[in-house]
Design a protein that fits this description.
heterodimer, A: mainly alpha, two-stranded antiparallel ribbon, 2 strands, B: mainly alpha, transmembrane helix (chain A), NADH_UbQ_OxRdtase (chain A), membrane (chain A)
């Protein structure tokens, strides 16, 4: 049984998806199915994480040996991602019951759970697979189910957001596919490890360069790296809150992991960062992302859009760390993947609580609500400080790791961008605080608003407390990040 | 007791008294637990420790923060009740006040005891955050909100300098622990830079020129906040940091000189402006700027004597200034007036307050028999040691202090009676009396104060410091300077016209060129940049797709330009089966052009089918007949579905495909040509490479063992069965998508 954990990790959620669809008459049951899928994936992820210390686990699909069949690989570099995705999925599941019930009509709610199962499948599959084409297939399933999920937002604008993401995302996915096709053409294999082996003889192969660029540009769309981020704000801003919580925390993170996997263990750090200027381009785009994302966040009128723009900036931090291609930099990137997932998940969750109560998350509507919804706003402030990177929050831990990595590498201009972006983060978090506590509540606020459901508040606070814990004791995420960096750079031959 | 509205006595301020009890407990702790300390690992992977120690410096600032805190909190229980009554706000709003006050006190003690630079930063910012909520307590008032934000921004942005310094020092010395840093730091560029950055953070916090402008604005806060934060706590935090890292600052002569200059400028600017302020709390705010200028100057002078003087000065000033702030609050509460010009002659009506405030003013003015006398004596001694420039500065400083504080007290308590006076609450007067008593006691028995300052200075100077302040009835320079200062100060006091013009000129210059303008301008500029970014954001779908494609195309283009071209493109020879392929490819080209130019949907569908079938024929020719068969089946199905779907659509409008804007059309054609060219080049380069051995050979070999008849089936169903399973699931997503979008959740 335990030998099949890597497969179960992915196949249980995959099996749950049609189950949700078949049982759609029973809304609660479909929710339970998704919750079970999330819990089982968490169990698998935890069990796997405890087992990778002795070396990577390989699982051959259908019993066909590696280069010919599809292989799943679980190693230090993907267990943190599995854990993040699973934990966020469980939290989102707990959160979703009331949130989806409120924001999505009864008939569509089972479809939300179906798509959530599929998104989870896609993200987990992307993470464990050791085969480039299989990765594309999982990328496709996670993307398509994401488009459907976003389309189920409350407002009509959700359709537009979804369509925009669909078109842009498809362009990105096509780029990835072209890149994989090129790589297959020059090596004749699809297995990641095998590809890496065969690529060593292909120095200076132009088709290989094209493959690298296509794959990375395609992934950059999924990662929402500036300037390929145009789909993200509306997508996260319009999706149902439970979906935003899950996607914002997990989806771009997995794309970032896949980027790392390709860069370090498929194409190899030598090709990607030495021969090709991916690191320099990455640092430049990361710095721009930090500045533009944070500046745009300062200007948003809707809390969910504000958070989405802040994600654009935060992804910049992660990309900056990874682009350094040093152990410290990659570790800092991973650490921020973990911490930002927890922080952003909590923030979108809190925004969902506001949507539940007010019907919107516009900053103007939050005026004076700090005292009426103290728990929600306390959650926003605590995690918001994490976005700014104020010690002792989790955000500080990862930002500090990033800053010291940048210092070691002498990347001063990026360091300046990090600081400027942090100051801007202070501004946009300050705007939320200002609206909530320092403006007078509107006089016509109806008195009989629904109270926030315990399950949603508990889900949000679980993430908040996790982020606080990671700030005070960074050893767990720090250890995972270090192990991931070691696993990536060790096999990448940097 | 003050008038109680509606006859009902307000409930006791329980949170306020709790805060007071906490402060008293903290005071006892600082008093008796001196020397204690602990260090716990916080985030070992980041090299962070929770290191606290109650050393001399910590005891001094801890006692000041908790002692003054306890008195101010007691005062605040009464003040806040009245304040809320006046503003007709419910008493429950106390809960928006006292938690922040308590947290502030705790942060101050934390800041005083922290032995780790990151911890210092944390508490430093925590005090700023608390101050934001406290200054903005009257949130109904726009001015209070603006002032709160200004205080927060100035101090927090400056605090980032401290974090940068911490990072720099860590990079150099590998630790955040302050004792070790002080040990390891050598004079170097990094040390100088780090020291300067630390000083910037500290100076902004201590409201030093040119970052002083937030303090007078912060007077929008309720009086207990000013009495605590803006006399003995928040502004003291900056000087505390200077003391904490002083050995580091002393590694660089430039930084020390900078401190002297900034301190002197603050003394003069604050002092001169304080001379003619009318609003009570404004006088005190500018006085605070000036007084902290003394301390910064002393730390800039450096050495044992100056360090001792600075520590002593913090103590004496904190006691006196909070007493004066509370006096201002009590007077305003009793009279409803907050301006010197509308007040006067209160001495006969509130004699106790007058005497206590007199003692506090005398302390600030450094009159004998108050602890303040010694603060100036030590200052003068340190100035004499340094040289004639500082001597002059010290005398000027003391003169200004004497003049403005004299004007403050005389204006309030002497002269003709003005304004109506209600009864002053006992709780509003008692804390002032206690502080005044302490100040006078310190003037008689200076020993305990001197010991505290010695211990603190020993930490900040990095060497044992001994001080022996006392009264000396001889003509030593300190005494002469003191007498000169009193005489000059008295002169300014009796000749107000002298100061009038000077103060007005300073104020006008400040309005005109002051840092306030820079602050406002920066905020406005940020707003504009943000707006510009927002407007730039593409809004329509076309634009956002272009926003993805154009950068992607650029990146790919850069990659191609940047790679070597030698041997990358080869032209082969046409032979054998190629002659059949060529016409097929020509057919594909024609069909593609037809697709692009067609104006009828059906033609588009059929032309696309031609492309598909031609490609299927290609597969058959290059030796993959089974793949060709699959392609034919897929293509047939697709075309049928396509045509069937098109037939159900409403009849097309022939004008739909007529292009509109010619400029846009040209742009589109250009972009399409460029993309096509790029694709051509990429494919060419790719085909110029020798083909690799594929795993498909192995697939062919393994096909029998997979019990399959042909390789396509086995690959799809077995070798790569997972891909197929997931791709089938994609169909599920499509069904769900259609159900969601078109059928409102109904599946079938």
């Amino acid at each position: 049984m335990t030998a099949h954990l890597p497969a179960l990790q992915v196949l249980v959620p995959l099996g749950c998806a049609p189950l949700c669809l078949l049982l759609r008459r029973f809304r609660t049951v479909t929710w339970l199915v998704f919750l079970l899928a999330a819990l089982s994936s968490l169990a698998c992820a935890v069990l796997l994480a405890t087992r990778v210390d002795d070396g990577p686990l390989h699982y051959e699909m259908g019993g066909w040996p590696a280069p010919y069949g599809i292989e799943f690989v679980v190693a230090g570099f993907n267990t943190p991602v599995l854990l993040v995705v699973s934990v966020v999925a469980v939290v989102a599941a707990v959160y979703a019951r009331r949130s989806v019930g409120d924001e999505v009509d009864d008939r569509r709610a089972p479809l939300v759970y179906t798509c959530l199962c599929l998104t989870l499948t896609g993200l987990l599959g992307l993470t464990v697979t050791g085969d480039v084409f299989n990765a594309f297939v999982f990328l496709e399933i996670s993307s398509l189910s994401t488009y459907a999920l976003i389309a189920m937002g409350r407002r009509r604008r959700a359709l537009l957001a979804s369509f925009r993401y669909l078109v842009i995302g498809t362009v990105g996915a096509t780029f990835v596919l072209i890149g994989i096709g090129f790589a297959y053409a020059v090596t004749g294999t699809l297995n990641m490890a095998d590809l890496a082996d065969r690529l060593t003889d292909l120095d200076g192969n132009r088709a290989l360069y094209a493959a690298v660029v296509f794959v990375f540009v395609g992934l950059a769309v999924k990662m929402a790296v500036f300037p390929l981020h145009a789909w993200l704000p509306a997508a996260y801003g319009e999706a149902p809150s439970a979906v935003s919580t899950f996607l914002a925390a997990a989806s771009t993170k997995v794309a970032i992991y896949v980027f790392c996997r390709f860069a370090f263990t498929v194409f190899g750090a030598g090709l990607v960062f030495t021969t090709m200027p991916v690191g320099e381009v990455g640092l430049l785009l990361a710095a721009l992302a930090m500045l533009v994302g944070s500046a745009a966040a300062c200007f948003q009128r809707d809390l969910k859009y504000l958070l989405a723009w802040s994600s654009v900036a935060q992804i910049g931090y992660i990309v900056a760390g990874i682009s350094l291609a040093t152990a410290a930099g990659v570790s800092a990137g991973y650490l921020h993947v973990i911490n930002h997932a927890v922080i952003k998940g909590a923030l979108f969750g809190a925004a969902g609580l506001l949507v539940l109560r007010l019907g919107s998350a516009r900053l103007d509507d939050l005026a004076g609500l700090g005292r009426r919804m103290p728990w929600t706003f306390a959650a926003i402030v605590v995690t918001g400080l994490g976005l700014v990177g104020v010690p002792p929050t989790a955000g500080f831990a990862s930002k500090w790791a990033l800053v010291s990595a940048l210092l070691d590498a002498g990347a001063w201009p990026v360091l300046v961008a990090v600081l400027a972006s942090s100051l801007l983060a202070l501004v946009y978090v300050g705007r939320i605080v200002e609206a909530a506590w320092f403006r007078d509540p509107p006089a016509d606020l109806p008195a009989d608003q629904p109270r926030a459901p315990v399950s949603m508040v508990a889900a949000v606070w679980a993430l908040v407390l996790l982020s606080v814990y990671f700030g005070i004791d960074a050893s767990l995420p720090g250890g995972l990040a270090d192990a991931a960096a070691a696993a990536l750079l060790g096999t990448g031959g940097a | 007791m003050a008038v109680d509205r509606g006859g009902t006595r307000p409930t006791a301020d329980r949170p306020g008294w709790s805060a007071c009890v906490i402060a008293v407990a903290g005071f006892a702790l600082c008093l008796f637990a001196g020397g204690a300390g602990f260090s716990l690992p916080w985030a070992p992977s980041l090299d962070l420790r929770l290191a606290f120690a109650l050393d001399g410096l910590a005891v001094l600032y801890g006692l000041l923060a908790t002692g003054v805190g306890a008195l101010v909190f007691a005062y605040g229980t009464r003040y806040l009740t009245l304040h809320l009554e006046h503003q007709r706000r419910p008493a429950v709003e106390r809960w928006r006040f006292w938690p922040w006050m308590t947290l502030f006190a705790v942060s101050m003690v934390g800041l005083a005891t922290a032995q780790d630079l990151v911890l210092v930063f944390v508490f430093f910012d925590l005090t700023a955050v608390c101050s934001y909520f406290l200054i903005g307590f009257d949130r109904a008032e726009r001015e209070a909100r603006r002032s709160a934000l200004m205080a927060l921004l100035v101090t927090v942005v400056a605090a980032v300098a401290m974090l940068v310094a911490a990072v720099l020092l860590h990079a150099e010395h590998g630790t955040f622990a302050i004792p070790e840093l002080l040990d390891r730091a050598e004079p170097s560029t990094t040390t100088t830079l780090a020291a300067a950055l630390l000083a910037v953070a500290a100076l902004a916090k201590s409201a030093q020129v040119p970052l002083h402008f937030w303090l007078p604005k912060a007077m929008a806060a309720p009086t207990p906040v000013s009495a605590y934060l803006h006399s003995a706590a928040m502004v003291a935090a900056g000087v505390l940091v200077l003391g904490r890292v002083h050995p580091l600052l002393a590694r660089s002569e430039a930084v020390l000189t900078g401190l002297v200059v900034v301190g002197a400028a603050s003394v003069v600017v604050g002092g001169v402006l304080a001379l003619r302020r009318d609003v009570l709390k404004q006088v005190l705010a500018y006085s605070t700027i000036s007084q902290y200028g003394y301390m910064v100057m002393l730390y800039g002078i450096g050495g044992a004597a100056a360090n001792g003087a600075a520590a002593f000065y913090v103590l004496a000033h904190g006691i006196a200034k909070s007493a004066l702030f509370m006096t201002a609050g009590a007077v305003t509460m009793a009279t409803g007036e907050d301006r010197l010009s509308r007040l006067g002659g209160l001495g006969r009506r509130v004699p106790v307050l007058a005497v206590a405030a007199g003692a506090a003013s005398a302390t600030l003015a450094a009159l004998p028999l108050t602890v303040g006398f010694f603060k100036d004596e030590l200052l003068f001694a340190a100035a004499v040691e340094r040289g004639p420039v500082t001597v002059v500065l010290a005398v000027v400083a003391a003169t200004l202090t004497f003049a403005y504080i004299g004007r403050f007290w005389i204006g309030l308590f002497l002269g003709p009676a003005r304004g109506s006076v209600g009864a002053a609450s006992t709780l509003l007067v008692a804390p002032v009396v206690v502080l005044a008593a302490v100040a006078v006691l310190g003037g008689v028995v200076v020993e305990p104060f001197a010991r505290l300052a010695e211990d603190a200075a020993t930490v900040s100077a990095g060497e044992p410091v001994t001080m022996s302040p006392g009264y000396h009835l001889d003509a030593r320079p300190e005494n002469l300077m003191a007498v000169a200062a009193w005489a000059l100060g008295g002169l300014l006091l009796v000749l107000p016209r002298l100061t009038d013009g000077l103060s007005r000129a300073f104020a006008a210059a400040g309005e005109r060129f002051g840092p306030r303008r820079a602050y406002d301008g920066t905020l406005r500029a940020l707003d504009r940049v943000s707006a510009a970014v927002h407007d730039r954001e593409v809004r329509d779908l076309r634009g956002s797709i272009a926003a993805v494609l154009v950068p992607a195309g650029l990146l790919i283009g850069v990659a191609f330009v940047a790679t070597p071209t030698a041997g990358a493109y080869m032209v082969g020879i046409v032979e054998g089966a190629d002659w059949v392929i060529l016409p097929l490819l020509a057919l594909v080209v024609v069909a593609t052009v037809v697709t692009a130019r067609a104006r009828v949907r059906l033609v588009v569908a059929l032309a696309l089918a031609v492309v598909g079938f031609a490609l299927a024929a290609l597969y058959a020719l290059v030796g993959a007949p089974d793949v060709a068969l699959v392609a034919v089946v897929v293509e047939t199905m697709l075309t049928l579905v396509f045509v069937a779907a098109l037939s159900r659509l409403p009849r097309e409008d022939p004008d739909r495909f007529v292009p509109g804007d010619p400029v846009r059309r040209r742009r589109d054609v250009f972009a399409a040509l460029l993309a096509g060219l790029a694709a051509f080049v990429a494919l060419w380069g790719f085909l110029s490479q020798p083909a690799a051995d594929s795993v498909s050979d192995e697939h062919l070999r393994l096909t029998p063992s997979a019990h399959g008849g042909d390789v396509v089936t086995v690959i799809v169903a077995d070798f790569r069965g997972l891909d197929t399973l997931v791709e089938i699931t994609v169909l599920l997503v499509a069904v769900v998508g259609v159900a969601t979008l078109v059928r409102r959740g109904r599946l079938w």
